[in-house]
Amino acid sequence: MKKPLLCLCLAAIFLASGCASVNYSDKGGVSMVVVANTGWYFLNLIPLASGDPDEPGCFWPCLFRQKTTLANNIKMLDYAVTEKNALGVRDVTTHTTDESVLFILFKRHAIYTSAELVFNREDADWETDLKPEE
User: Please, which residues have CB within 8 angstroms of residue 107's CB and are 6 or more apart in sequence?
Assistant: First the structure.
């Protein structure tokens, strides 16, 4: 009885593990990008699993590494700008959520970042929206 229960618990942890994703929307004449990265922690200190910012959308999580950070979300946002051939972004917003499971034993931490993609120089605020030219 213990072995099936252990397998079930491990499968649940694997299926509910961290995820990193980049999603796009082009509705209403505005191109938006939403970046999300989630991770699970034990006692709010020890990272168990988190999304891999180097491979957003990958099924396999990063185990025992702290990857749920704002810096990694910005890295994925920069990847989205490059992938869509945009000049830059504007109206960047970020928010975080924390959920506790089994009192304080496990915590799910998520960081969400969204921005509007800028494609035309006429639409950009020159001081804040565009990436520096190389």
Answer: 40, 41, 44, 98, 99, 100, 101
